[in-house]
Amino acid sequence: METVPFVFNRIVEQNASRIALRTKELGLWHNITWREYHQKAEQVGCALVSLGFGKGEAACIIGDNCIEWVMADMGIQCIGGVSVGVYATNAWQQVEYVINHCDARFLFAENEEQLDKWLMFRDRAPTLKKVIIWDTKGLRDYADPMVMTFDALLELGAKTVQENPSLFKEKQDQVREDDLSVLIYTSGTTGPPKGAMLTHKNVMWTAGAVAKANPVYKSDEVLSFLPLCHIFERLFTVFIHIRFGYLVNFVEKPDTVMQNMVEISPTMAMPFPGSGKNTIPAS
């Protein structure tokens, strides 16, 4: 059964101590193993369940590419939720539309800028239960019963896991191939955004199909910087990643893409003639 949680668990079991994700903070690279990635996804998922999140319900994520983005994404999908990415550059009216259109129960937002967008329509988004912020700079003294930090969510998740160690596995086992995995919304340039409904079977089949056309290897490295709410980046940063187990790097901020590309020399999705792996540097 090729669901996202099934494939994710398989790659974690096979590569627990290998590096899955790398993120740059204050000029220094930090490694996250597959085991740590799974642990954070479990904490996110179990925290959401404890807050009343149910199978088939939607949760939105808005912000630039980072480890919190994908941990939230994986946590949502692994408990049977529908993960919905929102363009970080969207105006608050567009954010309001997507949240209400998919009846989102939770909103993961990067920072104060994204929180401000929600504040513009908070009274017109009745389905939202919580807004979770992962970058709290400028929000230290902000208090709102609807808002919690990503760290607080992880703490709640860790407590939930301690009280019910089998919860995450139970929720994963309930996910079926034909269940919705993600909603990918169009940009809305020619009319209201439309949500493409992609099942677990769809995204995992596509991950395999892309790799057949452009061979993928565990030794590859990917630089994640295109919007994660777009299916192209989501495939390479999330779905193909969990299927083949290569390393995904996240830039410190969007304007450091070229600098990071030189440092990492990520491989492209095409094999160098005569070699056994993808070794053409993207730079």
Evaluate the radius of gyration: 18 Å
CATH topology: the name is: Rossmann fold
* Main sheet: strand order: 7-6-5-3-4-8-9
* Average predicted confidence as pLDDT: 90
CATH homologous superfamily annotation: ANL, N-terminal domain
Strand content: 15-25%
| Global morphology | globular
- Regions with pLDDT < 50 over 5+ consecutive residues? 268-283
List key phrases describing it.
single chain; 283 residues; alpha/beta; Rossmann fold; 4-stranded mixed sheet; 10 helices; 11 strands; 41% helix; globular
In brief, what are we looking at here?
With 283 residues, the protein is of the alpha/beta class. Helix content is 41%, strand content 19%.
What does this structure look like?
This protein is of the alpha/beta class. It is built from ten helices and eleven strands. It has helices spanning 4-15, 34-50, 67-78, 92-101, 112-119, 150-163, 167-173, 200-213, 231-244, 257-264; strands at 19-25, 28-33, 58-62, 82-86, 104-109, 130-133, 147-149, 180-185, 195-199, 221-224, 247-250. It has a seven-stranded mixed β-sheet with strand order 7-6-5-3-4-8-9, sandwiched between helices. The protein has a four-stranded mixed β-sheet with strand order 2-1-11-10, with helices on both faces. The longest helix is centred in the N-terminal third of the chain and has 17 residues, at 34-50. The radius of gyration is 18 Å and the shape is globular. The model is unreliable at 268-283 (pLDDT under 50).
